[in-house]
Amino acid sequence: MRQPGPAPLRYPFETPPGPGEAILVAEGVLWMRLPLPMALDHVNIYALDDGDGWTVIDTGFSSRKAREIWRQMMAGPLAGKPVRRVIVTHHHPDHVGLAGWFQSEFGAELATTRTAWLYARMLTLDVQESWPEETLSFYRAAGMDREIYDKRIAERPFNFADCVWPMPLGFTRLAEGDIIRIGGRDWDVRVGHGHAAEHATFWSRDDDLVFGGDQLLPSISPNLGVYPTEPAADPVGDWLESCERLATFARDEHFVLPGHKLPFTGLPTRLRQLIDNHHGALERLREHLSEPRTAHECFAPLFRRDIKGSEYGLALVESVGHLNHLLKEDLVVRERRKDGAWLWRRT
Question: Measuring CA to CA, which of 13, 105, 264, 281 is 20 to 30 A from 134?
Answer without folding.
Answer: 281
